[in-house]
Design a protein that fits this description.
With 188 residues, the chain is mainly alpha-helical. Helix content is 86%, strand content 3%. The chain has a domain of 73 residues.
């Protein structure tokens, strides 16, 4: 176990030396005859990774474009004849409904005109009947007034005759009563 600890310590020491060697400001790394500082390497790495990411994105767009181009080339328009038939049936039914509605409207107009004529005739007939009834009532009232005068005259005559007859009968009865009272035989 002590050996393992020594190996770990040796590795840590190596890492620290690499950090001192490559992470200091004065460190210069030479690659292919070119000298780079760690900051320049990081900028270069960032540029290279951005460039690779852009190329990958372009590749994906190109791949989608080619796939879409293939799909567009293979595209077959769907058969819409069923919808065309349905639309034709709907248009035909709509036209029939419109014609039927127009016929109903015209029939209703004719019925209304006919009813207006009937109502006008009934109104004329009612007005004529009202005039005739009013005239008949006036005639009856005149007849009643005339008959009333004649009746009043007749009643007065009957009353006078009745009164005269009552007076005559009363006198006759009084005379008979007086005779009966004056009769000396009646008292016996």
């Amino acid at each position: 176990m002590t050996e393992e600890i020594k190996d770990v310590n040796a590795k840590i020491d190596q890492a620290e030396e690499a950090v001192k060697k490559y992470a200091s400001k004065d460190t210069v790394i030479s690659i292919g005859g070119y000298e780079f500082t760690p900051a320049k390497l990081m900028v270069a790495f960032t540029l290279v990774s951005s460039l690779l990411g852009g190329l990958y994105g372009c590749f994906e767009v190109y791949k989608d474009y080619i796939g879409m181009k293939k799909r567009i080339a293979e595209y077959v328009a769907p058969d819409l004849s069923v919808f065309d038939k349905r639309l034709a049936v709907i248009e035909e039914n709509s036209q029939k409904a419109t014609d039927y509605t127009r016929d109903i409207k015209n029939d209703l107009k004719n019925d209304i005109r006919r009813l207006e004529g009937v109502v006008e005739n009934v109104e004329r007939s009612q007005k004529q009947s009202a005039r005739e009834t009013d005239q008949a009532v006036k005639d009856v009232q005149q007849e009643l007034r005339k008959n009333s005068k004649d009746t009043d005259t007749a009643v007065r005559e009957i009353k006078r005759d009745t009164d005269a007859e009552l007076k005559r009968v009363s006198k006759e009865v009084d005379t008979k009563i007086q005779k009966a009272v004056d009769n000396p035989l009646a008292n016996k």
